[in-house]
């Protein structure tokens, strides 16, 4: 009697697992379609801004921990020449904002006593530009501010 009950429980458990496997495979087959999948191709400017974000996240930590800030990343100067997602966005406003951003970014390294203040000015410059053009990253940029 005990053996029959154990055998019945084992069969029931195995049959439940088998159903789940079939359903999982069907769901995966239905939801994954390679014919509709398109890889996002980041523009040169978008890639540069991602690099700037990553660098400034680390810079924020170095400022907070009172560590050596290193040197200004010369690659940031590509902001003046990098290809934008929308080429029409490179206008007088963008160029003016880029010049201000670079000046503020360099100020962080030039005056390490005022690094926190200069850093927040640089972040606010990013916010000013992004409030007029490409507002998507604003919530992310706000996280860079040092309280």
Structure write-up:
- The protein is mainly alpha-helical and 147 residues long.
- It folds into 2 domains: 1-38; 44-142, no CATH class.
- Helix content is 63%, strand content 0%.
- The chain is built from 5 helices and no strands.
- Helix 3 (92-110) packs antiparallel against helix 4 (115-132).
- The N and C termini lie far apart (71 Å).
- The model is unreliable at 18-24 (pLDDT under 50).
The number of distinct structural domains comes to 2
Helix content: 55-70%
Bin the strand percentage.
under 5%
Indicate the mean pLDDT: 84
CA(first)-CA(last) distance: 71 Å
Number of H- or I-type helical stretches: 5
What's the order of the H and E elements?
A: HHHHH
Overall geometry comes to globular
Rg for CA atoms: 26 Å
- Structural category is mainly alpha
Kindly state the number of beta strands: 0
* Biggest sheet architecture: none
The low-confidence runs, each spanning 5 or more residues with pLDDT under 50, are 18-24
List the helices and strands and how they pair.
Layout: H1 2-31, H2 44-64, H3 92-110, H4 115-132, H5 138-142
Helix pairs in contact: 3-4
């Amino acid at each position: 009697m005990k053996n029959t009950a154990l055998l019945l429980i084992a069969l029931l458990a195995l049959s439940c697992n088998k159903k789940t496997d079939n359903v999982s495979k069907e769901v995966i087959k239905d939801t994954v379609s390679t014919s509709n999948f398109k890889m996002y191709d980041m523009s040169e400017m978008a890639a540069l801004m991602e690099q700037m974000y990553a660098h400034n996240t680390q810079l924020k930590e170095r400022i907070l921990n009172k560590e050596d800030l290193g040197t200004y990343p010369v690659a940031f100067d590509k902001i003046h020449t990098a290809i934008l997602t929308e080429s029409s966005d490179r206008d007088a406003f963008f160029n003016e904002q880029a010049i201000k951003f670079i000046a503020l970014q360099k100020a962080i390294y030039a005056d390490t006593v005022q690094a926190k203040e200069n850093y927040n000015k640089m972040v606010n410059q990013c916010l000013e530009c992004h409030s007029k053009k490409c507002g998507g990253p604003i919530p992310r940029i706000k996280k860079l501010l040092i309280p």
